[in-house]
Amino acid sequence: MSTRTECTPCPLCGSGEYEFLIRTQVQMQNAPGSFTFVRCRHCDMIYLNPRVYADDVGQFYPENYFPYLGEQAWGRFARLVYLSYRAMDRRRVKVARRAYPVQSESRVLDLGCGRPTFYGSFTSKQTARHSVWILAAGGGREMLNFPL
After folding, report:
1. For all residues of the chain together, what is the average pLDDT?
2. What is the CA radius of gyration of the chain?
3. Which range marks the domain in which residue 3 is found?
4. Nearest Cα to 24, choosing from 119, 110, 92?
5. Are 48 and 114 in a shared domain?
6. Fewer beta carbons within 10 Å, N or C terminal of the chain?
């Protein structure tokens, strides 16, 4: 998988000043690579930088992308897969909360949320949660009953 990336200013305020937060490995794919998350020094937004070119994003979401397969694809193992996703989401939330402590007035925006269980893992009822689906994954509205 050959992925082109570009360094970008903060998508919220336009600042080019940021600090490194964490580097994560590509997940749900049998491919090498990593993503770097940074925090804007001006507005505190956390985002990917460098980011994948828009034309290359689709390679991370093939037709057989695990979160899109649905429970029927897993048969009798569906419950185990569901529990595995939930455990992974809890780990992701811990990493996110370490990077930026989420409080009652915080807003969480998950862009390109695929199967949006991570989004649903922010359990504070006071935390404003928003989701933007880059690709039409379907199922999120019914699965978690939240606005898309």
Report:
1. 74
2. 16
3. 1-60
4. 92
5. no
6. N
Work out the pLDDT band at 115, boundaries 50, 70, 90.
Answer: low
Stated pTM of the model: 0.64
Bridge-partner residues for 108, per DSSP? 129
Instruction: Locate 39 and state its tokens.
Output: 């925090």
Tokens standing for residue 112? 């390109």
Domain count, the chain: 2
Please indicate, yes or no, whether residues 73 and 111 belong to a single structural domain of this protein: yes
Nearest to 47 by CA among 14, 25, 77: 14
127 phi, psi to nearest 5 deg: -75, 125
Same domain, 56 and 83: no
Q: What b-and-e string marks burial along 69-108, b requiring 16 or more CB atoms within 10 Å of the CB?
A: eeeeeeeeeeeebeeebeeebeeebeebeeeeebeeeeeb
Whether residues 27 and 71 fall in one domain: no
**Helices of type H across the chain:** 66-69, 78-99, 117-120, 140-144
Residues 55 and 21 in one domain: yes
Question: Tell me, what amino acid is at 87?
Answer: A
Indicate whether 33 and 73 sit together in one domain: no
